[in-house]
Amino acid sequence: GEVVAEDRGRAREAVAGDELFAGQELVEPREVVAGGLLQSGGGFRQDALPLWQRLEEANWASARGDDAAAVPALRELLKEEPGNVAFRRALSSALRRLGRAREAAELLGGTGDDATAWHERALALAEAGALDEAIRSEERARELNPLLPEVHNHLGVLQARKGRASDALRAFEE
Fold this sequence. Notes:
The protein is mainly α. It is about 70% helix and about 0% strand. It has eleven helices and no strands.
């Protein structure tokens, strides 16, 4: 409640004061976990708040470096909402940070039209040593959202690791 509002206020001030984020707004929970938690009329389902709170707790554990604690909580959330891409991405990210890259990548196989999920999958695949598959995932992420700079940067790094200098430069320049 009050602590979250205070943290969100400080985050807004930090974003507003950073020229890198000039003109950008913080993403609200509705935009982050909308998949599966919104009703067709646009409002949150009645059980969405407890799910959101549990996701926040798991994300705070990850932010503190305690991904081992976050993983079981995220698995439970995903059991309850198997189609929720935000839960799937969060779990994949935590698994990757724990060194379980292949498991993280498999979790995001067939991620649909979520560019961030495709990018997260590419990160996991690259850590698992599957560079060609990682490149294909980043290319899919780029198709879905060409405005994500992290996708272009990682694609350039992957191309460079494969020895494809001209492809790497092209990705960095996009």
